[in-house]
Amino acid sequence: MPSSVTTATLMQPHVARRNGPRAEKEHAASSSSSSSTTPSPPGAHDDFFWTYTEEPHRTRRQAIIKAHPEVLKLCGPEPWTIPLVLAVVSLQIGCAYALRNTPVLSWTFLLTAYVIGATATQNLFLAIHEISHNLAFKSPLANRLFAVVANLPIGIPYSASFRPYHLTHHKSLGVDGLDTDLPTALEAWFLDSVAGKAFFATFQILFYALRPMMVYNLPLTTIHAFNVAVQLAFDYVIVQNFGGRALGYFIMSAFLAGSLHPCAGHFIAEHYVFSQHQRSREASASEAAKLAPPPAETYSYYGILNLVTYNVGLHNEHHDFPAIPWTRLWKLNQIAHEFYSDLPCHYSWSGVIWQFIMDKEVGLWCRVKRKEGGRKVGGTEAANGGHRLPVPVEMTR
């Protein structure tokens, strides 16, 4: 693998956590005098992986463009996203109608909400993720309005707020105080046990919903007001015509989609450091791995659930090229395979959830953090999806 893109190489896997992240950081410091991973800033009471290097995706993106300039032809909207979203929205409305007279705590209601509803809602979560990158329509405004449509069967308005927070996550990966995907030190300390991690995995949808507002507030815009107004009107129509249980189905599906559900594994799999993964063991045997201490901070997942989640599992590929839609990420992986074949990855989201909860070497501390770099994305840039497609090398958002 080219040396210019080895910024995601993992630590040696035998280093234990708790004697965990601290031990790995100490190991990193002693492995190479050029190590850029440092202990937490003075006074910081945490065990995160602190680094002062640039996030790896920009470096790898530039190397891939240099080696395979044809990948730029993969960028641009995917029209198939539109009918798929409409089909899943219709499916959820149909299920809500079918369950309108079914008791909420009945097995029929709960199993439908878990098997169909949660899977469909995760699909809509990730459709909104695609749309936030302007990958459904060419028009930024059309994408923003369509995200509101995809939001409808979720029951709670969030698409307008998700977009700027998510684009900032891309521009500020791992930056403390900007990347709202990062757990806070309080979360990591308080939930640092099997029971605590089980609680986090069960209620992680609430953490992802509430944490961004605790980190920084977004200015309210017209699209936020539109999102709220349309969602409240839709919920009112559903309750008036189908009853409260129909709306309860939407809410239950959304909760289960972000709880102990196989598809919810992507929340944890994407950016938590899993140093015990099999490919990590293989990679750590090389001299290059031993001399490159900073741990991988993005993991791809190459399993079957990509079929119902807009290929969000190809997460290294997505962060490298956010302007490439879900239907072309496998093509990117194929073209630039030498850049991805040696990176640590996952093959089971259910396995990720289990390991996250049970493995003492994995927990909320296992995230790479930076004190500097990145910036908030909002306003006109958010309206443009955070991308400047006419300048290929600038596709860093």
What would you call the quaternary organization? single chain
Shape: globular
Tell me the number of strands. Answer: 5
Supply the helix-strand structural class.
mainly alpha
Rg measurement, Å: 21 Å
Q: What ranges have pLDDT less than 50 throughout 5 or more consecutive residues? A: 1-45, 276-285, 287-292, 379-397
Query: What is the percent of helical residues?
Result: 40-55%
Overall residue-averaged pLDDT value: 84
Distance between the termini: 24 Å
**Element order, helices and strands?**
HEEHHHHHHHHHHHHHEHHHEHEH
Strand order of the largest sheet: 1-2-5
Q: Biggest sheet, in brief? A: 3 strands, mixed
Proportion of beta-strand residues: under 5%
Transmembrane segments: 80-99, 105-129, 188-208, 215-234, 246-269
Keywords: Lipid metabolism, Membrane, Oxidoreductase, Sphingolipid metabolism, Transmembrane, Transmembrane helix
Region (Disordered): 1-47, 377-397
Membrane topology: Multi-pass membrane protein
Descriptive report:
With 397 residues, this protein is mainly alpha-helical. The protein has a domain at 81-263. Helix content is 51%, strand content 3%. The chain contains 19 helices and five strands. The protein has helices at residues 21-31, 56-67, 81-98, 107-132, 140-151, 159-171, 185-190, 194-202, 204-215, 222-242, 244-257, 265-269, 278-284, 287-290, 315-320, 329-335, 337-340, 349-358, 379-383, and strands spanning 37-38, 49-51, 300-301, 345-346, 368-369. A three-stranded mixed β-sheet has the order 1-2-5, with helices on one face. Helix 3 runs antiparallel to helix 4, helix 4 (107-132) packs across helix 11 (244-257) and helix 5 (140-151) packs parallel to helix 10 (222-242). Residues 43-81 form the Sphingolipid delta4-desaturase N-terminal domain. One of its GO terms (cellular component) is membrane. Pfam families: FA_desaturase (PF00487), Lipid_DES (PF08557).
